[in-house]
Design brief:
By secondary structure, the protein is an alpha+beta fold. The chain folds into 2 domains: 106 residues, N-terminal domain of MutM-like DNA repair proteins, CATH 3.20.190; 124 residues, Helicase, Ruva Protein, domain 3, CATH 1.10.8. α1 runs parallel beside α6 and α5 crosses α6. This is DNA-formamidopyrimidine glycosylase family protein.
Length: 244
């Protein structure tokens, strides 16, 4: 599943279509009435966490890539796209994704201060949201899109390893200074993720995600599904402290 930084890259790649008018469109599962897109100009592209937003006058098309979503710019695969947008001789195609029409103003739908890649990110608000759930685990807090919009399993694992926090630590038990360190590292690593993804060096820089041995203590990593999301956590029982 693409994480926040990957959606930012997509947003950057499609800027050539901003201001252009849709001349043809199709949706292969009927989840979106594409007739509303015809002859409409794209006013902007935005992202909120894992949501990619195509803005038109008066409405927005939200795209969520889910686990296996992909896209093609000025090319297509043999498989019909979930959403096809034509701009005269140019095209934009999305596959295996979820589509949703948003008719409300985006500021009424999204909390931009929860987006890990946004200039509006608000650390104090994130702490307040976490403290409102005293039994929340660290792994679940990071994967909660209303607190850390854009964090996926890679960012979760890398952040917890870098801050030496066990994924099943209770948020209420983590010392305030350590909790703030977790937040700071989440944002910092998200932008490292962005740059490494652009350079094609993301996987080679992973320290914990899908690794077998802790690079600090040279003991086997524990791999276990943790938290309410039951997503895989890779952690070291020697150096990652369980706050409980």
């Amino acid at each position: 599943m693409p994480e926040g930084p990957s959606i930012v890259i997509l947003k950057e790649k499609v800027q050539q279509f901003k201001g252009k008018t849709v001349t043809a469109a199709s949706c292969n599962n009927g989840s979106l009435d594409v007739s509303i897109l015809m002859n409409q100009p794209i006013t902007d592209f935005k992202s909120w966490g894992k949501h990619f937003l195509i803005c038109f006058p008066g409405f927005t098309v939200r795209i969520h890539m889910m686990m296996f979503g992909t896209y093609r710019i000025n090319e297509h695969t043999a498989k019909p796209p979930r959403l096809h947008l034509q701009f005269n001789n140019e095209e934009l195609n999305f596959y295996a994704c979820l589509l949703q029409l948003i008719e409300q103003p985006l500021n009424e739908v999204y909390d931009w201060e929860a987006d890990i890649m946004s200039d509006s990110w608000n650390t104090k608000k994130a702490i307040k949201k976490m403290k409102a759930e005293p039994k929340l685990l660290a792994c679940d807090a990071l994967m909660d899109q209303q607190i850390f919009s854009g964090v996926g399993n890679i960012i979760k694992n890398e952040t917890l390893f870098r801050t030496r926090i066990h994924p099943e630590s209770l948020i209420a038990a983590i010392p305030p200074k350590k909790l703030k360190e977790m937040i700071v590292e989440t944002i910092k690593y998200s932008f490292e993720f962005l740059e490494q993804k652009k350079k094609g060096t993301l996987k080679r820089n992973w320290q914990a995600y899908h690794k077998k041995e802790c690079p600090r203590n040279h003991v086997p990593f524990i791999r276990r599904d943790t938290g309410r999301s039951h997503r895989a956590s890779f952690y070291c029982e020697v150096c990652q402290v369980l706050y409980s």
